[in-house]
Every structure is written in C-alpha cells, then in structure tokens.
C-alpha cells in the first residue's frame, strides 16, 4: 500500500535506480518528465497507461517511487484542480512496452492511501483522433480546416476527403494547373473528417468539452466519436496461445488462481512473501490445521490467519486459504489487519470465527476451547506464526532456500535450536506446480510444515463442530460472535490443477502432496529467488 507517510523530500528525485524528473505545471496538469538524459525516440502510445480513481490528495513523489520499481518512467501527467487536489486521473508513459504491461497488471492490485477502492487502469488505445460525421457535403474542404480549428483550438491536424466520383460520368474538361487548384478548393466533402491531436490526453479533453457525442456546426448536429487507431485498422486483433487476445486487456488470467492473486497483492503493496504453514491433521475427522502469515516490509506489522479445514470435499486447501487471505486484504484495503481465526466447512463455505490482536489474547479466550476440536493445535500454530513474524524476513528466506541443500529426505531449518517450535520442514515453493506470474514477476513462495513433534494432544469430540449456522441467525460464544460468512470460489474451475486435500510429514516425505510434475527423488541443489522488496521480477 502507498501511504502518505512515506513522503520523499527534495523534488522529484527518487532512490535506488530512480532518476530526477523535471516537473512543470501547465494547463491544469502536473507533468513529470521526460528524463533529462533520455535520448531515444519518444515511446509510443503502446507504452502508456490511463489511470483513474486516483485519490484527491496523492503523494506524487511516493507514487513515482513505486512506479520506478516496475521500470523507467518516461512521463507522468497528473490532472490537477486548483491548488494541490488531483482530478482523479493521470497518464503514465514508460520507456518500454514490457514495463507498461507489468505496470498495467500490478497497478490493478495496488491500494493507495486515501482511497477505499483500487485504481482503474487501462492501456492507452492510441486514440488521439476524433471521427466527425454528419458534415454537410456542401462545405468546401478548405473551410472544414478553418472552422474545426475554431472549435478545437488544440487540434494538430484535420483530414477530410473529396467525394468519390462516379467513373462512368462524363469526364471533366481539362484545366490548367492553376484552374485545377481553384476547382479543388470548391470540391464537396464525403461527410466526415478526422481531427487529430498531439496525444490522447488532448483529444480526451476536447471530447469532454462537447455535449456528449455531439457538436453543432453549420446549423446541424455533428456526431463525434473516437477514431480507430491506425495500427488496429492495419493489424486487427492478435491471437496468443490459442486464446482471444486484445492488446488492451493484458495476458490471459486464470480467475480462480487466488494463490497468484495473493502474490500480486503482496508485490504491489510492499508486503513480504506470504508464508503458508501447514500444521497437524486429524485423519479421523478429516481436519487440517494451517496458517498464513502476511507481513508489512516497512512497519514490520503482521497478520496471521489460522484455519481449521474440513478437507474431505476440498480440491485444493492451499487455494482455499489463499482465497480467504485475498478477501481479507481487499476488505482492509491493503492494510495489515487483526489476526483472524477461520473455519472452512466445505468446498463452498467458510466462516470467520474470531479476530484477535495477540497470541496472549487468543490463549485467554476460554470460550473458544469448546468451539474447536483441537484448540491447542490452533494455539501452537499461532505461536509458530508469531516466531516466524518476529524473525527477519530476508534471513528467513535465506534459511528456507538453504534448507534444501541437504541429503535428508525432508528439508528443514531451525530459527532457534533450543526451541522446538522454531523448527520447520520446508516444502518446495512450486510443489503445487502453480502457474508462473505474468511479466516475469517474482514467483517466490515460502511453504512450510510445522514440526510434528510439538503436537501430542488428546482428541476431543464436539458433535456440533460442523453445523453451519443459517444466514441471519447469530450464534454467540464468549465475547465474540460468528460475524461473517464467505462463499468460496477457488475449489471449482480452471484454477484447480490437482487434488491437495492435506499436508503432513508422511505425505511430504513420500512427495504424495506434490503435484506429479514436481515429484522428485531428491531435493533440488538450489532454490532460486529473492524477496519481493529486492526485486518484483525473477
């Protein structure tokens, strides 16, 4: 999330690989760029994005710093009202189309401080021309240029055509060169014209000043529309990998792949790599306990989500957990939220049971002890997640990657050799054979199994455990109530690659929890990857 507290002083200078961008204020817009040392030809409209729903008070410099994580910004044009308020939209042009494609996808997952909604992001369509139709055919061509210039002062060019003459008509008498020019000036037009502007922004401003879709000239209402880009007229639509593909829509995206969506949210909002920890299972009751840790790389604040999952009808419990994590991030507009305790009761339904601020608060909530079959398992998971959150994220990633350099059947590492809770078994980042992110985004994941040695608990049976409460009826226990229900979409559709019902030590040692294409007899000699903060790319 971009916060106004992350302010950068000293002009439009940014850190890291950023560079100073000249800034001017003109015609109600603030323009950053182009870079003073840029010598290549100006990037085309294919490198430009149109961004809407920008908060009224935007910290432009912090936003520019975020943009430069993606690539080199050629120009940033922010529309301004009087004072320091924005008009809610801007144009961003990168130095290459690949960088614009990456920004197109990542900006849609960014939360900006001061806004309850995400940005609207569109690829520039090269629409710098307006198509005017309904022109009286008696108007000479030379008059069109003059009159349209009065209506559109920022017009760059006007293109109109003489009528197509019937070739069977009697040939016109011959003219001298001068007489022919005079005759051409009196020619009628075809009833339409193209008004060209310097860029899409100027064309958009001109179109907005008109009565929607109309302009009155020569006593008639002329129809005003966007002209199709010349490239689209010449090349039409592309086709990629058998899918219908429009350049404006980005890459094909699997709608139910919430694992990918969670990683994109973390990449966009400066969150650390999400950590998924699998806890014990109860095979008799088809229960899996697990958790997800989300941590802010700047403040160090974190949120842990703990799950009790009835897995007998689940397709992929990993996707189900990621889906709920995505919903919590969206509900809290990208900010770190209270810790949460979920119960996933089927492949379509889950419930938020309890929220808490600390592990100690969870331990002291005695009313929850009779609500879950193995509540001590939940407490153990919360403590394990707390240990991971308090550890340096960069060092944790190094430990995770190095753990695979072992001859042991199952890779493992320890945060503290004297604490049984600090030992974790490492699961391959790609054990589900999940699809790589588009645009070569950082594909790193951290998947762990909690040390099974800490779990020696007697099984307690609660016959009411899986009775799903009806909507509209509130079931209370202790100080809290079951406040929210979720419909799951991740267990059906294109995002489901294989069946992942549960993960325990035996399934990890035998690789049965791995996708068939990821099942190898030994650990990999090296795990590549870096933190999201070092690079958003692989």
TrEMBL record:
GO MF terms, alphabetically ordered: RNA binding
Does the record bear RNA-binding in its keywords? yes
Which keywords does this Swiss-Prot/TrEMBL entry list? RNA-binding
Q: Kindly name one Pfam family recorded for this protein.
A: RRM_1
Q: Where is the RRM domain?
A: 47-126, 128-229
User: Which PROSITE patterns did the record assign?
Assistant: RRM (PS50102)
Q: Matching InterPro entries, A to Z?
A: Nucleotide-bd_a/b_plait_sf (IPR012677), RBD_domain_sf (IPR035979), RRM_dom (IPR000504)
Query: What is the name of this protein?
Result: RRM domain-containing protein
Source organism lineage?
A: Eukaryota, Metazoa, Ecdysozoa, Arthropoda, Hexapoda
- Coding gene? 105261978
């Amino acid at each position: 999330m971009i916060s106004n507290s992350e302010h950068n002083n000293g002009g439009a200078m940014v850190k890291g690989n950023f560079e100073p961008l000249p800034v001017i204020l003109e015609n109600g817009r603030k323009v950053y760029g182009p870079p003073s040392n840029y010598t290549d030809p100006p990037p085309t409209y294919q490198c430009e994005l149109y961004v809407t729903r920008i908060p009224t008070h935007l910290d432009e410099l912090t936003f520019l710093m975020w943009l430069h994580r993606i690539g080199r910004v050629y120009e940033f044009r922010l529309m301004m009202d009087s004072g320091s308020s924005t008009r809610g939209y801007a144009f961003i042009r990168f130095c290459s189309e690949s960088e614009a494609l990456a920004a197109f996808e990542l900006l849609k997952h960014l939360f900006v401080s001061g806004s309850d909604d995400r940005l609207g992001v569109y690829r520039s369509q090269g629409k710098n021309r307006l198509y005017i139709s309904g022109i009286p055919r008696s108007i000479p061509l030379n008059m069109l240029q003059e009159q349209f210039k009065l209506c559109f002062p920022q017009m760059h060019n006007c293109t109109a055509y003489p009528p197509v003459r019937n070739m069977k008509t009697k040939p016109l008498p011959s003219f001298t060169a001068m007489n022919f020019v005079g005759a051409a000036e009196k020619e009628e037009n075809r009833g339409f014209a193209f008004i060209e502007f310097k860029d899409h922004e100027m064309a958009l401003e001109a179109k907005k000043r008109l009565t929607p879709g109309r302009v009155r000239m020569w006593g008639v209402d002329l129809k005003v529309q966007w002209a199709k880009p010349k490239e689209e007229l010449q090349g039409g639509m592309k086709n990629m990998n058998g899918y219908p593909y429009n350049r404006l829509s980005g890459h094909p995206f699997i709608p139910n792949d919430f694992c990918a969506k969670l990683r994109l949210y973390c990449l966009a909002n400066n969150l650390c790599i999400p950590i998924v920890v699998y806890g014990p299972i109860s095979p008799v009751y088809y229960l899996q306990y697990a958790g997800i840790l989300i941590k802010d790389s700047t403040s160090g604040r974190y949120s842990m989500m703990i799950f009790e999952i009835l897995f007998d009808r689940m397709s992929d419990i990993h996707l189900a957990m990621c889906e709920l994590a995505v919903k919590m991030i969206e509900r809290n507009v990208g900010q770190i939220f209270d810790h949460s305790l979920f119960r996933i009761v089927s492949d379509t339904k889950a419930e938020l049971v309890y929220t808490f601020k600390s592990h100690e608060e969870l331990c002291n909530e005695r009313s929850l002890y009779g609500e879950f079959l193995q509540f001590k398992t939940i407490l153990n998971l919360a403590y394990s997640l707390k240990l991971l959150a308090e550890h340096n994220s960069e060092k944790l990633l190094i430990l995770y990657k190095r753990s695979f350099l072992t001859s042991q059947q199952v890779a493992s590492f320890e945060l503290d050799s004297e604490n049984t809770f600090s030992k974790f078994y490492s699961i391959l980042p790609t054990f589900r054979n999940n699809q790589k992110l588009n645009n070569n985004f950082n594909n790193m994941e951290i998947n762990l199994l909690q040390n099974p040695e800490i779990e020696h608990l007697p099984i307690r049976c609660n016959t009411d455990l899986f009775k799903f409460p009806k909507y509209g009826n509130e079931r209370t226990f202790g100080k809290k109530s079951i406040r929210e229900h979720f419909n799951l979409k991740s267990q059906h559709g294109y995002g489901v690659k294989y069946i992942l019902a549960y993960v325990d030590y035996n399934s990890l040692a035998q690789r049965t929890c791995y996708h068939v294409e990821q099942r190898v007899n030994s650990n990999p000699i090296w795990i590549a990857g870096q933190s999201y903060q070092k690079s958003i790319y692989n």
